[in-house]
Amino acid sequence: MSALIEGLFNGISIGSVLLIAALGLAIVFGLMGVINLAHGELIMLGAYTTFVVQNIFKPLGEPWFGLYIIVSIPAAFIVAAIAGLILEKSVIRLLYGRPLETLLATWGVSLILRQLVRSVNSLLAISIALFCLLFFGGLSLLKQRRSDWEVVRNQVIAILLPVSITISALVGNLMSGNFKLTRAWFSARNVDVSSPAWLRGGIRVSENFQIPYVRLFIIVLTIICLIGVYWFLNRSTWGLKIRAVTQNREMSSCLGIPTETVDALTFALGSGLAGVAGCAVSLLGSVGPNTGQNYIVDTFMVVVVGGVGNLLGAIIAALGIGTFNYLIGSGTLALMFSSSEQLAPFLSFISTSSMAKVMVFALIISFLQIRPAGLFPQKGRTAEL
Predict the structure, then answer these.
(1) Residue 34 has pLDDT above 80, yes or no
(2) How sure is the predictor about 75, in pLDDT bands with cuts at 50, 70 and 90?
(3) CA gap 176, 250 in Å, rounded
(4) Of 58, 25, 29, 27, which is closest to residue 41 (Cα–Cα)?
(5) What is the number of other CB atoms lying within 10 angstroms of the CB of residue 331?
(6) Model-level pTM?
(7) Which residue intervals of the chain bear CATH 1.10.3470?
């Protein structure tokens, strides 16, 4: 019984991380129908942001170091939201209504982000900043000064883009001899995030089991995110606009709702929630360039099983998938039924993380044969679309 309680609690805490990540994915997919394969890399960005904030607070010592996690949550949200906003404006917006191209484009972005984390250094950051200043600054300046901007826009981009790339590359090449500038910030190795003192230890429930404070913190963080998302979608003006666009984009546009702004805001919100999930992930283990890939498949499964765009369905699916994954993969079920001669060999065989995912996949496929639209399918105009 003690092993079962421990397994259930740990599974719920893992499901809480999936839920935060799935909230953003469900909102984006529910509104725009975009399958964002770079969502896992947004989780990774949130995790690395937590690592950077930790290193900033570390020299301050206690008690200031204990506050770094409180600062990391909004910081991770902002960094991931900005990355998502850039992704939406530069890639997604050009591919609306073309799901296959969007799928391939976001997969390519995910590869770029992973390689960027492995190789980013001060020199690369300076080169990128210089390119952005020259290209986007030049576009903004010319847009303000040219009355015929729409006519000359493509010609200006055709000239300004290669010039900005060339100047940035030349500056980077001239500075490449400085070792301090070329040293990688993160590299391909995993990095560790230390829990603050007030999150170490736990509440002892029995002689062999205690509830870790870290996992309690993740569960509380998930509840806060749920309440915040629910309030935003149902009580705020922009939440009303998001729900209106979700139900009927054409009619919302006719009524004066800026659908492009709503799309950008929704994508930024979903990406920011992925960053918060990354902050929670960093407390559970080491952080690396492939961190997001460990959660992206499970996150998509949560959205599909729960029903696209449904918060209640996402809650049930995330907690269920997280709990099943942990109970099977950790060997808790094998331990519980070790006395059964019929079940023990089979449970021992599947008691690995990879086999646990296979079993969860099989259960989900069986479930979708019965309810292909998930626990709570969409209704009305959205379902017809």
Answers:
(1) no
(2) very high
(3) 52
(4) 25
(5) 18
(6) 0.83
(7) 2-120+184-384
Task: State the amino acid at position 15 in one-letter form.
Answer: G
Are residues 274 and 43 in contact, defined by beta-carbon separation less than 8 angstroms? yes
Q: How far apart are CA 273 and CA 151, in angstroms?
A: 39
Tokens of 211: 């509830």
What CA–CA distance (Å, rounded) separates 369 from 301? 14
Judge residue 293's burial from the number of C-beta atoms within 10 Å of its C-beta, 0-12 exposed, 13-18 middle, 19 or more buried: middle
Please give the pLDDT value at position 207: 67
Pairing of strands 209-212, 202-206: antiparallel
Return d(Cα 363, Cα 22) in angstroms, integer: 19
Q: What percent of the chain has pLDDT over 90?
A: 3
Closest CA to 19 of 280, 233, 368: 280
**What does the block give as tokens for 7?**
């397994």
Q: Are 322 and 17 in contact (CB under 8 A)?
A: yes
Angstrom distance (rounded) from CA 346 to CA 17:
29
Q: How far apart, in whole angstroms, are the C-alpha atoms of residue 249 and residue 253?
A: 6
Look up residue 287 and give its DSSP letter: B
DSSP-derived letter for residue 195 is: P
Structure tokens at 256: 């004066």
Q: Which residue has the higher pLDDT, 103 or 308?
A: 103
Alpha helices in the chain (DSSP H): 2-32, 39-57, 68-90, 99-119, 122-145, 149-174, 179-182, 213-235, 237-247, 249-254, 259-282, 293-306, 311-329, 332-336, 344-350, 353-370, 381-384
Q: For 11, left (φ over 0), alpha (ψ -120 to 50), or beta? A: alpha
State whether CATH 1.10.20 applies to domain 2-120+184-384: no
